[in-house]
Amino acid sequence: MTQPIGSSLADHLSAEVARDARLADTAATVAAIAEAAIDVSEVVGRGYLAGDLGAQGEQNSDGDVQKALDVIAHKRFTQALQAAPVAEVASEEAEDVMVLNPGAPLAVAIDPLDGSSNIAVGMVVGTIFGIRPVVSDPSDPNASFKTPGTTQTGAGFVVYGPATTFVLTLGNGTRIFTLDRSTKTFRLTHDAITVVPSANEYAINSSNGRHWDTPIRAFIEDCLRGSEGPRDRDFNMRWTAALVADAQRVLIRGGVFLYPGDNRKGYAQGRLRLLYETAPIAFLMEQAGAAATDGQSRILDIVATKIHERSPLVFGSVDEVECVAKYYEGRQPAAGRSPLFGQRGLMRS
Ligand SMILES: O=P(O)(O)OC[C@H]1O[C@](O)(COP(=O)(O)O)[C@@H](O)[C@@H]1O
Ligand SMILES: [Mg+2]
Ligand SMILES: [Mg+2]
């Protein structure tokens, strides 16, 4: 049963379990993550008064330098998951899978703090998670995470912005809950979201333009040409440097987000990690009627071979995601290439 706007996350979780009792463990895990998110939200909300949250520490598994807030968030979410029916955790901030409650039914992949480059400048950051069943294989400690994203029973992200939002799917639509700070409760503000099929906004870090492959360069070039190019309409560009914030914008307003692979060393598969970034976002997008691919193939069908594996990511309004795939297939709208590429101009390589 759909809950009314303003109802609590706890009520929504109860309703989901009433709909499908198999979701009980997933719902308990989501509740634990939400509690921790409120605590992290308070730290983020104190901003510079909380000390130097951007202070640099060790390198994480992916070679990124950990910031103080990365470590605080990792500890708080791990503590929360310890008290949930979770056996294993794959965290961006831990090299190997962490074993929490052996014998418990669930495995969680988590990016405790997304958008780390925004910490020091006091801008929006978040948390991303995907929940899936444990796969027992004594010969492979990572077996639970080597299943396609379609096995996820729940996924979500938190945005610590002007408001703190908790964006959730349990496979029955995507909803946004907003933190009511007076009661420390997440309340439903956006029920069963439907992303518009087409919109005039794209998000990409265009400073990497000279490293992109031809289809992505051509797609962005044609967006830039706007009403004078084959797309026949003008586009706007947004990039927050926090995947969670860009994903929330796409859910509410539509558009397309791209973090493709590129020619920089180590970036052949882009920057984002399959298990705790692209697969949860893909589940949330599909549940909102949007799409998510690596440019051509559905993200939710990809099986990780290692826990910190990266994948290119293109998600958002279905027509735009489909349009990107057409550029890869050579079926893009016909037109001469723009002078912005290949010759003198903004995007010259
Ligand atoms: O700095 P870039 O290359 O624009 O990358 C930004 C992207 O990297 C991320 O910050 C990666 O996440 P982490 O901060 O968790 O490593 C995304 O949130 C964001 O979309
Ligand atoms: Mg991240
Ligand atoms: Mg992170």
Automatic annotation (TrEMBL):
A UniProt-annotated Pfam family: FBPase
Binding site for substrate: 114-117, 205
Residues given in the record as Mg(2+) 2 binding sites: 111, 114, 277
Catalytic activity: beta-D-fructose 1,6-bisphosphate + H2O = beta-D-fructose 6-phosphate + phosphate
Subcellular location: Cytoplasm
Cofactors (names): Mg(2+)
Note accompanying the cofactor annotation: Binds 2 magnesium ions per subunit.
Presence of the UniProt keyword Hydrolase in the record: yes
Family from the record: Belongs to the FBPase class 1 family.
Subunit and interaction comment: Homotetramer.
Name this polypeptide is given: Fructose-1,6-bisphosphatase class 1
